[in-house]
Write the structure tokens for this entry.
Amino acid sequence: MTASNPLHDESTTAHLDSTAHLMNRISSQLASQLSLVSLDGRRRPEAPALVVVAHGSRDPRALSTVRALLGKVRALRPGLPVHLGHIELNEPLLPDTLAALGDREAILVPLLLSRGYHIKRDIPEMAAESPVHARVAPALGPHPLLVEALYARLVESGWRTRMDEPTRRETAVILAAAGSRDPESKLDTSHTAHLLANRLGVPVIPAYATTAAPTVQDALRTLAARGRTRVAIASYFTAPGRFATECAQAAPWIASAPLGTHPAMARLLLHRYDQMLKKGRGAVSICGSAAWARPATHHPHSPHDRTRQATRRNTTLRLSVSARTVGACTTTSRQSNAGPPNPTSAQAARPSNAIAPAYCTPLPSEGSPARPR
């Protein structure tokens, strides 16, 4: 009799757990449906679709990681239409995803960690060639949520949350990123390195797998010359791939996993979506195909190419004027000697970008995280 009681208790507990889980799912779905109805009983306008724009990779682990991340986004925001589109290499490609959406509204959130050619040109051009009324969110970084994910991945790989002073003096971190020719990409990565250094309490040097300098090996030599021989590699990649693997193999001590499906990544994607949603009509929407058509393989001085370049310049000017009109760009504030609203903001140090005013809008939550004691 006594031996059967624990089994009965475990069965009852399991039943209660499954019932509670079922009730939570029902409540979540009911809340999602009720959110579509206003107080007067009328159906509210459908929220813009969230289109997460990933780069794409030949490594099959990247695609599975991105899909799992989108699953977490959907779990955090039931009822929100969440779609995936790739810039290259993987399906669905972004143009195909946008074509399937028709002429509805969508907010495109790049799964990219810094500014660069893809965000400034590729994504806006693809959006403009589709019938979708699209708004393009800024890059994910720099942002404290990325630092939260980087820190957690380092701890998972063996980083000590407490260390004595002699150990701290010989410890450093290399923030290993993909690299870009765009100087603003390096600025963003350097800013993230600064935020991570404040979080860890040790020097953090950005390094790059390709295109940009310094390389990981260069950074290791620099740190060794400064007496920093206990070096960890913080993988600043959204998913596994060749660059992440190569950088991790160069680690003399520990190397963290890519950011991947960390909960902070899902929260950050929704944060960027919500930012653009709050901007509403004040944000620049991209629609129509003529203004942002991809350049064809004409001679750069041909009449067709000169016409195309003039069209782009006119479009950029109109977008820039629109950004100044809605007061989204901090450059306008600087010109009026008002200064940036938040000097500690990760966005405050960024140069303005005429294509997407969101780049130069400071985020009140993007200050430096507190350093642990």
Summary: The two ends are 54 Å apart (CA to CA).
